[in-house]
Amino acid sequence: MRTSLVVPFLLSVVSLAVAQEAPKTRAMSLVDCVQEALQHNLELQIERYNPEISLYDLRGSYAGWDPVFSVQGKHTYSLSGGGLDPETKLPSPSSTTDADVFEAGIAGVAPWGLNYNLFGNINESYGEISPVFLTNLPTLFDNTRGAVGVNLFQPLLKNFWIDQTRLNIAVSKNRFTFSEQGLRGKVMDIVTSVEKGYFDLIAAREKVKVQEKALQLAEQLLSENKKRVEVGTLAPLDEKQAESQAAQRRTDLLSARQAQSSAQNALKSLLTDNYREFHDVEIEPAEPLAVPALIFNLQDSWGKGLSQRPELLQAKLDAERQGIQLKYDRNQLYPQLDVIGSYGHSAGGAGIREFSDGFDQFRGGDQPFWSYGARLNVPLSNTAARNNYKANKVALKQLLLKLKQTEQTILTEIDNDVIAARVGYERVNSTREGRRYAEAALEAEQKKMESGKSTSFFVLQLQRDLTQARSDEITALTDYNKSLAELARAEGSTLERRAVNVEVK
């Protein structure tokens, strides 16, 4: 009675464990896989931060135009001792001085290179001068002085067309665009990898089916041979050959299943940022391996590649950045010629003692001052600037050669990929015909064997040929679809082909 209760319980526990370990099947089209990768691929998530970092760098480069406000206040005290003047032989008085000083200003550089400094200062000095003779009284003093105005200077040669701030801004804009192209290229790489991984998974699943069918044929032949050996119409050697064939097919099936698991894992790693959660999901491709018949135009593909490849656009941006640097270096060869000027109002003089008196005089504008002129600084050798210009000029020539090398590499890649796609399409047709012929040959040989006109050796050989022909057809289909993905990547049209839009916000 106890045994009858325990055994069903154990069986139910085992079945529950098997059910829990069974992977969850998720049917996914290629579009589904691409969308999943765009959202969760770790490599792509890392790359997305580069444009954001470049954008912050670009915004920070405008800091050279930010005005700087400064303000300070201080109190000073000084004591000067008196004594006998060695020249006049007369006594000199001692004095004590207290001063309250306040200064404020705004300085900066305008986008066209004008340097400005708005300033204001005011100070009140008060104290006493000790008497020279004991009969005299100390002399008290209290006065206020100050000034408000602006100092300007505008470069006319050096730093006129471009200065350090404008250089930083131009280079930062260039690098921001460079990072955008880097992100676009990374998206293209990921999408292409997903396409190839998806096709590899379909191929791996189909090859498992091929090996299962091959094992079925081998076991069927083995069963038939055993019956013939038992009735004496077939030699025992034929049975052993069939057994060997069946064992080999089991081994091939295990290898095919292992390859399928590897293809599953490779695709999963592209689609998720949490492999542990995705591990128990079995991706089931919802699409077969198609054979789209395309017209390949090498000139059209070259045109796309030379206008859309991120690597080429980045190489052009590198040359453009070097051109910006060269423009700056050339401007640094000129002498420093500045137009300078100032204007303002001062306060001070007789009767101006308190701060309020000074501010009243500022408002009245009774003591204006101004100046204008020019300033010229000419470096006698300018060694650093001249050699920097020459070095960067050579570096630009080098970058232009690298740009040409990149263009040539792209043209070669596209040429090879077009050839591979054309050959791949022909291989699909030829392997499909080969598989049909192999099926017909095996069927004919099996009929000959049933009538006693053939042996299991030839049937086994044709079974192997059919299995190989089926595998070759699947490989050709996979290679053709992967070659189309590689061609799109070489052209730079992957995103357009898969309707993917890359925007940096």
Structure, explained:
With 505 residues, this protein is α+β, with helices and mostly antiparallel strands. It has 2 domains: 26-58 and 167-323 and 391-497, Outer membrane efflux proteins (OEP) (Up-down Bundle); 67-158 and 338-377, no CATH class. It has 12 helices and 10 strands. The chain has helices at residues 2-21, 30-40, 42-61, 164-231, 236-271, 275-278, 298-308, 310-331, 355-364, 383-450, 456-491, 494-497, and strands at residues 24-28, 68-80, 83-84, 91-92, 95-109, 115-129, 139-155, 281-285, 336-347, 368-377. It has a 6-stranded antiparallel beta sheet with strand order 2-5-6-7-9-10. Residues 1-20 have low confidence and may be disordered.
SSE inventory with pairings:
Layout (H helix, E strand, L loop, with lengths): L1 H20 L2 E5 L1 H11 L1 H20 L6 E13 L2 E2 L6 E2 L2 E15 L5 E15 L9 E17 L8 H68 L4 H36 L3 H4 L2 E5 L12 H11 L1 H22 L4 E12 L7 H10 L3 E10 L5 H68 L5 H36 L2 H4 L8
Parallel strand pairs: 1-8
Antiparallel strand pairs: 2-5, 3-4, 5-6, 6-7, 7-9, 9-10
